[in-house]
Amino acid sequence: MFQLGKTIVSEDIIEKDFVCNLSACKGACCINGDAGAPLEKEETTILEEIYPKIKPFLRKKSIEVIEKVGTWVTSESGELETPLIDGADCAYVIFDKNKTALCAIEEAYNQGEIGWKKPVSCHLYPIRVKDYSEFSAVNYDKWEICDDACTLGKELQVPVYKFVKQGLVRKFGQNWYDELEKVAEKHVK
């Protein structure tokens, strides 16, 4: 672990390799698990505001769940997250012709319907950020469903932090990312 500004960063994000391999996993991280995608407080408001523009992209079952429980939920532990369908699929999941899970929010963004790409936690994955009062912990979330992504990342020699560069810059800013790159360069020497 090392400190970077007000973050404590796991060395795994510079030591481990990762590149999503959707053709292998079919977007399993969006349809497996026991919780929705973590949300920041301001993202709950964004989801409420953009829902009418996302709705045409959603599956019927997604619309039913969202209209029943809301565009976001609070877990039993008090965490804000996206709702789930039957305790599995993120309510914002859609599928392409190959049955690969995609994000309806991101699809609406890609088609110019909205100006917000997706929750930052999704943009950062496989990095998870836990905010504490004095600092944020930045960790690599190892999940066996992403083994193919680890293999592809190793083959292409892409460390986790480079794979999620856009998400890290979005969350912490370009200056933070530039400092992370300096630490990574020293670390690998």
From TrEMBL:
InterPro entries, alphabetically?
Answer: Rv0495c (IPR021458)
Per the record, the domain of life is Bacteria
Query: Which is an annotated Pfam family here?
Result: DUF3109
Report the family membership.
Belongs to the Rv0495c family.
Indicate what this protein is called per its UniProt record: DUF3109 domain-containing protein
Q: Which organism is it from?
A: Polaribacter filamentus
